[in-house]
Amino acid sequence: MPGALLEVRDLSVDYITDAGNVRAVDQVDLDLQPGEFLGVVGESGCGKSTMVFAIAQLLFPPAEIAGGSVTFKGQDMVRLGDTELRHIRWRDYSVVMQSAMNALNPMKSIEAQFRDTMRAHGDMGTEEIRERSAEVLRIVGIDPVHLRSYPHQLSGGMRQRAMIAMALLFTPELVMMDEPTSALDVVAQRSLMSQVKQLQERLGFAVIFVTHDMSVVARYSDRLLVMYAGQVAEVGPTRAMFESPPLHPYSRGLLDAFPSIHGPRRELIGIPGSPPDLGRPPSGCRFQPRCPVAMPPCSSVPPRLYPVRRSQVRCLLYDEAITEAAPERQAAVKP
Amino acid sequence: MTTVDTTDGRGPAGGAPLLRTVELTRHFRLGGLLSNRVLHAVDDLTITIADREIVALVGESGSGKSTVARLLARLYRPTRGTIHYRGRSVESLRSRADILWYRGQVPMVFQDPYSSMNPVFRVSHGVSRNLRLHRRELGRAARHDEAERVFEAVGLTPAAEMLSKFPYEMSGGQRQRVGFAQALALRPRLILADEPVSMLDVSIRAGVLNLMADLRQREEVSILYITHDLASARYVADRILVMYAGHLVETGPTEVVLSQPKHPYTQLLLSAVPDPREEVSVEATTDLGEPPRVINPTEGCRFRFRCPLAIDECSRVTPRLRPMGPEHQAACHVATPDPATAATASQPIAPGPPAESV
User: Fold this and answer.
1) SS3 of A24, please?
2) Which pLDDT does position B352 carry in this prediction?
3) Is A25 a member of any domain?
4) B206 touches chain A (CB under 8 A)
5) Where along chain B do its domains lie?
6) Cβ A187–B234 below 8 Å, yes or no?
7) Which CATH number characterizes residue A136's domain?
8) Residue A189 class from Cβ within 10 Å (0-12 exposed, 13-18 middle, 19+ buried)?
């Protein structure tokens, strides 16, 4: 796509184990435009965090990139060495880790950690560093007096916001966030999300936001990517996914797993079973053992991504060659 | 609400609610020996829980809700106030047998299914340990049968196979079910479930929520469901208790509290619930969701610093629970009761501390 900020093609990540390689991310394609907000949704173990780490070139053994390319601002990041990466990390893209409690150094003040980052990736004077540190804290709604605070002196929400402030030190073009809100209460979560969205609109950076909770990103993302067992199950505009029922049975299951605060109380079904062992993925469609609408071909034919309206869906329901053979199926599932 | 007589011949029969607290209070002293900083985790909590009732205790981290669970589980001693279980004061239980009995009647299920189990033992270990300790009348074979029964009751089937697994072989949802099975092995009457689904994937939360509803039906237990998620509280609970900064601020039947929230804090919580089916919108919020810190609190409403409706009185007088509707109470100076309730509330009510209705 022309002008894409990030182009991921055929990206695969393996975890090397004694029992053989486990493919955690399997041939993922992904495009991100400047200033776009992409939500990545899936259960634990679906490979969503591994994918973000692979994009950011932060994988360490036993994980390694097994194939594919990550083109960020025209450069293939997979081929860059550490020195080259250091020039673009944090300046052009940054990562907000899941657990701010663990990602911040408990022995150092916020100011010292900001200073470390700025020294490692840029060449600013002490005064300039202090000013910028205070500025980013103010941006995320923390009083700059907390520059002298240590992580344990901040609340969970403040720590998470401090992490986001750190990610904004150099005003990057892409901020990747790995479950930044999952340890927070609803009120803090809502506040953080709307803040991220406002900052994004103001500063214009693109966001990849990883979460297991579809409701968190539903209101803020432009596009949603649903991952299942290392693969893209469905990707498309967020609005399309919520205006009509999602196309993939898995996305539909994720959406139906929420108790609703409005409307009638209805029985929750959730998604039966658990995600597959990626060391031995099921044959055919990987979701088929848990799928409420699985058909006979699903256990043998691995689905590819089919374009449906403005989305792409990895499900044989949208393979015309197969649904023509069983038209009642098509009628039963398509909205 | 039905009162089922299942007293095991221990406590006084019938009449008394399953569990009742009166002005339950827990303070923690902070700092060194000479420090006089006192954290008020729970203040004057008066609640009842009936038989076969699921009550949701809702609030942010720092609201004191976990402290309540620990007080009820006797992991903490109250600073003041009492807990009555079937009319019997829990504080007065002194003998080891009595304490074991109470712990068996009111067990706890923990938040984190990844760290609440010993990784070197099979999952049968916890269940059979509970059975050996609390139900000594059972022989080896009977213990085994009972372990299988409780595993089946929580949906871990085939039970024999599941019992021989190690924690790492189970998913988070399955481990949380083991937590409930361990509690069930004690033949409890009230399970204290402290955020049992917050660490789980959204896709498997539904299963554990359904399990709680199921256990109430089939095993006739009551559950105190502690959570910060109003939507899941709505899904399983008959009644909701909302806590803020150690105070109970609103209580009532679930649907009433959620459809007509009277306390501004309940309204804030309700507005923060994410709903994927909701309109896509970004609203400016001024509330950062900072948890309250209740160290040496002064008189007045503890929510006043975040409250959009605060008036003068809020910083002078601590609001107490007052009737807002049938079985519906809120502790707020500004909230207006339903018209019918307002008429009766203006007449003098019986003296004594404002008690929560059963």
Assistant:
1) strand
2) 44
3) yes
4) yes
5) 21-107+189-275, 115-187
6) no
7) 3.40.50.300
8) buried
Residue by residue, DSSP assigns B308-324 as TT--GGGGTS----EEE
> In the prediction, which pLDDT does B3 show?
41
What percent of chain B has pLDDT above 90?
Answer: 51
At residue A325, the pLDDT reads: 66
**Mutate which: A179, A185, A277, vs B, most B CBs within 10 A:** A185
Interface contact B280-A238, CB threshold 8 A: yes
Q: Which of A268, A277, A290 should one mutate to test binding to chain B, selecting the residue with the greatest count of B CBs within 10 A?
A: A268
Torsion angle of the four alpha carbons A152, A157, A162, A168, in this order, in degrees rounded to the nearest 10: 160
What's the rounded Cα separation, in Å, for the pair B56 and B60? 13
CATH superfamily of the domain spanning B21-107+189-275? P-loop containing nucleotide triphosphate hydrolases (3.40.50.300)
Per-residue model confidence as pLDDT tens digits over A187-229: 878 888 888 888 888 889 999 999 888 888 888 899 999 999 9
- CA-only gyration radius of chain B, Å: 21
Phi/psi region, residue A313 (left: phi>0; alpha: psi -120 to 50; beta: rest), is beta
Angle value at C-alpha A59, between A55 and A63, nearest 5 degrees: 115
Distance CA A82, CA B332 (A): 59
Phi-psi region of B246 (alpha: psi -120 to 50; beta: other; left: phi over 0): left
Residue A172: domain span: 6-228
Q: Is B205 on the interface with A (CB under 8 A)?
A: yes
- Rounded to whole angstroms, the Cα distance separating A99 from B308 reads 31
Burial B168-196 (b: 16+ CB within 10 A, else e): eebbbbbbbbbbbbbbbbbbbbbbbbbbb
| Residue A205 CB-half CA count within 13 A | 27
Q: Which token pair is B124? A: 């049968």
Instruction: Let me know: does A32 contact A221? Beta carbons within 8 Å.
Output: no
The pLDDT tens digits for B324-355 are 999 999 999 999 888 776 655 544 444 444 44
Asked if residue A156 belongs to a domain, the reply is: yes
| Residue whose token pair is 């209580």 | B251
Contact between B311 and B333 under an 8 Å Cβ cutoff? The reply is yes
At A221, phi and psi to the nearest 5? Answer: -90, 150
CA distances from B185 to A282, B6, B153, B175, B207 (A): 36, 16, 10, 15, 20
Q: How far is B81 from chain A (nearest CA, A)?
A: 29
- φ, ψ for residue A150, nearest 5 deg: -100, 155
Which H, E and C letters describe A234-256, residue by residue?
EEEEHHHHHHCCCCCHHHHHHHH
CB contact under 8 A, B203 and A257: yes
Chain B, residues 145-204, CB within 8 A of chain A, namely: 171-174, 201-204
Domains of chain A: total: 1
Contact across the interface for B235 and A44, Cβ inside 8 Å = no
B357 neighbors B326 (Cβ within 8 angstroms) = no
In angstroms, how far is the first alpha carbon of chain B from the final one? 8
Q: Which of A141, A215, A261 sits opposite B258 (nearest CB)?
A: A261
Place of tokens 């829990």: B90
Q: Does the residue A1 lie in any domain?
A: no
